Fold:
Amino acid sequence: MNSEKKFKVILDKQAAKYLKKLESKQKDKILNILSKMSSNPFTGDIETIKVKPGYYRRRIGSHRLKFLVMLKEKEIRILDFGPRGDFEY
Structure:
């Protein structure tokens, strides 16, 4: 049994709004990835955002996910989510 404490994933308003617009197949894929991130937020294609220390981006196909990991609070705050071309760091 895994005794590792999971992170709580919190979607900011804009990220949640974009997620609702996706078709169900894409939405299921994203939700599955967010679930895996709750165990370890640093898995997958992740890079730090150099202009904002403590912020990260994760590539999910043609989409990007910008997030902040708060280790003390055991929280992952999803700040922004969207297609690569529209994505801003």
In short: The chain has a mean pLDDT of 87.
